[in-house]
Amino acid sequence: MKHRLFLAIGFLAGCGGLLSLKLMTTHAAPPATASEGQRSEENDPQTPSSALAVRVAAIAPQTGGVVRTTKLPCSAYWHDSAKLVAKVSGYLDQLNVDIGSRVKTGDLLATIDVPELEEDVILANADLNYQLAAVTQVEARKKSAIAEHHAAEAAVVKAEADVERWTAEITFRQKEYRRLQALSATSTVQEAVVDEKLFQLQSVQAAKRSAETVILTAREQAAAAAARVELADADLAVARMQTQISEARLKKAKLFASFAKIVSPYDGVVTSRKYHPGEFIRAADKAVGEPILTVGRTDLIRVVVHIPDREVPYTNPGDPVVIEFDTLPGHQFEGKLTRIAYSEDIRTRTMRAEVDLPNTENLIVDQMYGQIEIQLQAASKTLSLPSVCLVGDLKDGKGNVFIVKDGVVHLQPVSVGLHDGIRVEILDGLSPQDLVIVRPPAGLSEGTAVSVDMKDLNAVKS
Question: Are 361 and 394 in the same domain?
């Protein structure tokens, strides 16, 4: 029974196949005529003719070489940041700011209560006033000594004048005595008159000797007065030196008193606060502790980048840079390299470089992370091409490109310079008039006929 069922199924399948073959034969297209076959051959792109040239894109080399740039991660830091610690010990009396407060240079941020320093200022000020009074007193004493010296010198002059007067008087009395003595010899003049003239002469001589003694006394007094002037000068110098010492003490006392006031060193923002009013703060030289406040300068940012060893020879202060921060999309900050370390870190083989970046809008904050693009070298005057024009591998600065001449492909060796992965610098082997194939298709070889589709440089993608 099963055997008969299988034979019936086979028979029906055979009939279906014959019916299907008949329908296909009935609907098949009639044979093509000779003219139709010829038209089909002309439209077939595989038919050998001039229409079979390979279509390629080509570009002329661009005048101007490749700009050497590097793009590296970078970090932003406050250009200056000060940890404000206490120079003196005491209780935190006032705290005028908190975290995030904007401050200006010289703003009073906090005050430490140190009353003994205020007393030191008062004492030093009193001592200075005392020394200034002493200077005034010694100056008056000096003036008195100078006056006495002048008076003594005047007395010397007067005594000398007296001696001169008595000397002249002696001369006159001597002549008078001699004349009368001569007359006395002729009995013309009495002896009493002669004796009187002798007495007068002797009196004048005694007066001269007295005047000479006055000169010696006046000179001694003048010398003593001069000594007093010198002593007054010495006392005045000492008094003035004591005044300078007192002024230094007062300055020191005021300086230590000023340490009780914490002021902002520059325009910026308070980034940390470790103490609250009423807490006791120890001087920084007596204990190791946290700073009272930390202030960061905000108007200028220090952007730090680490230059890889291979780029170090081309890195110089003044190189143009463009900086973008991950947290500030759409913002580009232009500047120049401000300084480089001229020394590599042996652990990382990188060199530290910094950019001073103005932050007038306060967009950038400490520790921001971003990317910096540095123009290490400007473009040279050589030719350049898109990197996708190269054929095969580069070796020892040599490479190959396909160029088109008279509709035929030629493999052209070239000398290659700087290559940034997008464009390549051509040092030799091409002229600005050459047509270079972009992205040569597989199988392209020397002598292949091609038709050229010129490409705009901006349309060529790597």
Answer: no
